[in-house]
Amino acid sequence: QKEVEQNSGPLSVPEGAIASLNCTYSDRGSQSFFWYRQYSGKSPELIMSIYSNGDKEDGRFTAQLNKASQYVSLLIRDSQPSDSATYLCAVKGSTDSWGKLQFGAGTQVVVTP
Amino acid sequence: DAGVIQSPRHEVTEMGQEVTLRCKPISGHNSLFWYRQTMMRGLELLIYFNNNVPIDDSGMPEDRFSAKMPNASFSTLKIQPSEPRDSAVYFCASSLVPVGNTIYFGEGSWLTVV
Questions:
Q1: Mind telling me how many Å the CA of A25 is from chain B's nearest CA?
Q2: Which residues in chain A touch residue B101, judged by CB atoms under 8 angstroms apart?
Q3: A49-65 pLDDT, tens per residue?
Q4: pLDDT bucket at B88, cuts 50 / 70 / 90
Q5: DSSP E strands: which ranges in chain A?
Q6: What does the pLDDT look like over B36-71, one tens digit per residue?
Q7: How far is B83 from chain A (nearest CA, A)?
Q8: How many A×B Cβ pairs under 8 Å?
Q9: For a tag on chain B, would you pick the N or C end, based on fewer CB atoms within 10 A?
Q10: Who among A49, A100, A105 is closest to B56 (CB)?
Q11: In this predicted structure, what is the pLDDT of residue A16?
């Protein structure tokens, strides 16, 4: 079983709609969670971090964390063609050194005009 | 500010040759990571340095891979001898821990072994 799991997609979203991305993790003691965006041929870049249960909003992005269910999600509101990318979920495990992250395989999002 | 700088950006080499990838982390960062990304396996951590000391090299696939960090501003990842299955994008990343959680990635080195 992979430590961080994501649906690979592609997730097709009409422009202006909400994209919903899901991630589950196996280490119940994990405390730090991140979403990275990776455009094709580019490197991953951090877009959101979340550490406490509940929602965290940053512009059009909302991260949601439920530690009891070992689930973290990312919502992209008013999706734009520029949001078309692969979104990587990353988790710092309970026994991982500070700064070490486990990455999911990523969900490809395609926003259609 | 300069980000993480990697070289070469693209490398095509023949099987059996030695490959050396280079990385300059962000100035002031104390942690450096080497990741490998493939379609099949996604983004995998190969090795992690903190204050120039290797902390976790459990992701290094085999003895053909080695990494060094002789000082705070430079690291190398070497593959000798290279094999076609080593073809991947190799990312170097750096971070300042425990102050920040953000890992900043370089642009990657695209390696093709033929």
A1: 16
A2: 32, 34, 49, 92, 99
A3: 999 999 999 999 999 99
A4: very high
A5: 4-6, 11-14, 19-25, 32-38, 45-50, 54-58, 61-66, 71-76, 85-92, 102-103, 107-112
A6: 999 888 899 999 999 999 988 988 988 999 999 999
A7: 22
A8: 49
A9: N
A10: A100
A11: 97
